[in-house]
Amino acid sequence: EDILKDTIGSVREISNNISPHNLNNYGLVSAIKSFIEREKKLVEINFEENLNDYRLPRIIEIMCYRIVKEMINNTIKYARAQEVWISLSIEDKMFYLSYRDDGIGFDVEEAIENQKTGIGLLNILNRLNTLKATYSFKGKLGEGFNFEMKLRLFS
Asked: Which of 7, 13, 84, 137 gives 45 a disulfide partner, CB atoms 3.0 to 4.6 angstroms apart?
C-alpha cells in the first residue's frame, strides 16, 4: 500500500512538472508564483509582473514557464546565488521576461560557442527559437547571470 501511494505521488509530481495544473488553469504568473513558493527555501526569489491576470497564448505560457523553471533550477544547482530577480511585463504589444541572479556567473557566450553547456541551456535556446523571441544572455565569472527576452504579441 505504501509503495502504491509513493508511486501515485511520483506520477503526480512528474505530471505536474510537465504541465502544471496552475499553468493550465490560471496562467503563467500563477504557475511561476507556485514554483517560486516551492523553491524559496533554497534561494531568495524576487518576482514582479504587470500582466494583471492577462493570459498569453498557451504556447508562450508553456515555453516561458519552462524557461523560468530551468533558470531557477540552474541557479540553485550551479550559481551559489543568494538572490534571484524575475520580471514579466507587457508593454506596447511586447512581452518581456527578465531573469537575473547574483551567483558566481559563467561565460555564457563561451559555453554556447564551445557547446560546453548542459542540456538545460540548450533547451532554453530551443524554446526561445521556437517562440522566435529576441533575447540576450549576459554572464561572466564572478558577475552573476542576466537574461532578457522580448516577444511581439500581436502582429
From this structure: 84
